[in-house]
Amino acid sequence: MPTKTEVKSNTITLRGSSQIVAEFFEYSINTILYQRGIYEPELFHTVTKYKLKLMITKDKGLVDYLKNVLAQLTEWLEKGMVQKLVLIIASVDTEETLERWVFDVQKDEKTEKEGKTGKKSEKKIMQEIQAVVRQITSSVTMLPLLEEPCSFDLLIYTPLNLSTPEKWEESDPKYISKENHVRLRSFTTSIHKVETSVAYKATDEDD
Description:
Number of helices: 4
Structural class: alpha+beta
Radius of gyration: 17 Å
Largest sheet: 5 strands, antiparallel
Distance between the termini: 43 Å
Strand content: 25-35%
Order of helices and strands: EEHEEHEEHEHEEE
């Protein structure tokens, strides 16, 4: 999984930015899976990241799965191929999508075309990411309870001409037929901008 990032002073490279974004995805995915109770609490342990106490899985199967996904995601980020990452939470019994956590990714095209670096302090980037992760953590208070067994899936939106790696497959968007939508904070590395939102199944009480 992503560890050290290439950030020196206020200068950030495309590779460093991609690693920061992938690392944010790693901690965000873990936070959502823990907060929404997709896995048992005992399968997580506490770490400190972004000056926050976060829960990270220690389940080997899940660790290996996320490691492979994030490695591919980082590679695509460096090539400017990632448009968005979507975490789907669905009912195990009906396969109905109950929540869609969407991370929209925008990239500064000049960086890729002209080989430029970005200008932003690591401290500022981490502060922005911290604010997003805080929102993700606190969002459990506004989301409906998941009162049935649920599973999760990860969708990565890429250009149509990108070849699908082995063991990966194309998927439908898994939209929610009737949803409520909440936009969360965003952050930018000056090379990548990530906007976060969550859509969840509306209940009859929402009418």
